[in-house]
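Incident log entry.

Two folding requests arrived from the same account within the same minute. Monitoring flagged them as a possible duplicate submission, but the sequences differ. Recording both here for audit purposes.

Request one:
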Amino acid sequence: MERLHATRPILNYVFEFVSIYSQMTRKKKLILILVFNLALMALEIAGGIVSRSLALLSDAGHMLTDSFAVLMGLTAIYLAKNRRTPPGPSATTGPR
């Protein structure tokens, strides 16, 4: 029972973060994910170099590709919102 009481403040922080996260836009969520991913990747690179662990370094490389995928998602959001010309007859979506 004491252990549950000790974790209540931690759970309050988790629930507060979840409520804040649910109110964020998609773009802000992706930026947050990108920052966390790059920070953890930097920690894995540092840990891999210090401990001479190839597994940590390869996982950091995997996280780099994950970061690139999130960056592609951010680029897609940017391009979708900043469309210069409205679609017209010259912008087809398939064969006519």
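Request two (distinct sequence, not a duplicate):
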Amino acid sequence: METQGTEKGKLVLDRVVERSGHHVFRLWFGNVAEVHKSDTIENLKKMQPISLELYSDSLLLVDVENESRARELADYLQSKEDQGWFEYEDGDANQ
């Protein structure tokens, strides 16, 4: 990453110099059944290597390490979203 200093001396992100290769997805459970959330988390844990962060009761962040794993995960997430288990979005701003 490259940063720039502000007038107040703080650093702000200017640009990404080299991408890490990691890919992030956000899952929103909202008002879905609790069983869908717990089943989703259990299924995702089996897809190692993967990193999960439950940001709130309704928001789960999922990180995978490369594009191949991201495509595999996106297929799974789309199928579950189609079944009404959650809503998801791709966290990659460059998509």
